[in-house]
Amino acid sequence: MNFQVTVLKILVSYPDGFAIMADLKRDMAILATSGRDWAERTKRLAARVPALDIFSQGLVERLNGGWRITEKGRAVLELMEARPAEIGTQNAAPGAEPSASAPLASPLLAARRSGRSRRLQRRRAARERGRAKAC
Predict the structure, then answer these.
(1) How distant, in Å, are the alpha carbons of 29, 31, 35, 69, 113 from that of 26?
(2) Is residue 90, in this structure, part of any structural domain at all?
(3) Strand order in the sheet with 18-20
(4) Residues 5 and 81: beta-carbon distance below 8 Å
């Protein structure tokens, strides 16, 4: 499992990109024990940015007992997660005309990301309600 990619993935899943250390540790433990799929996925993503260093590159900042992903961190993570076809259209040769589907790529990615974000927010809210009931 690639620690730095995992941190980026966890932080981006939080509504404001900020998580306290206890939440980060819990989420890391869950992902670390989730099986080989997660480890292989993070290795694939890390291979796209070999010199990844989330703190020295300003991708994550330390705040108030936790960490927050920066806009630059979100952009790097999006680059790592882009499919090869999407990367090809973004790096088209100069002078080549953009394809008709190129403008749709980012709104589609944004819609997919926002749906995932809403699901994660609902899960966190349910988890918090469960904790409140247990007390």
Answers:
(1) 5, 9, 16, 17, 22
(2) no
(3) 18-20, 66-69, 60-63
(4) no
Half-sphere exposure of residue 87: CA atoms within 13 angstroms, side-chain side:
9
Token pair belonging to 24: 């980060």
* Domain extent for 22: 1-84
Total number of residues shown for the chain:
135
pLDDT, one tens digit per residue, over 89-128 is 555 444 433 333 333 344 444 545 556 667 777 788 777 7
Token representation of residue 134: 């247990």
Do 7 and 55 lie in one domain? The reply is yes
Amino acid at 67: W
Distance from chain centroid for Cα 48: 14
Q: Which H or E run contains 79?
A: helix 71-81
Neighbours of 132 (CB within 10 A): 8
- DSSP β-ladder status, 60-63 and 66-69: antiparallel
Q: Is the pLDDT of residue 77 over 60?
A: yes
Reading phi first (left if > 0) and then psi (alpha if -120 to 50, else beta), residue 78 is in alpha
pLDDT of residue 131: 75
In-domain check, residue 76: yes
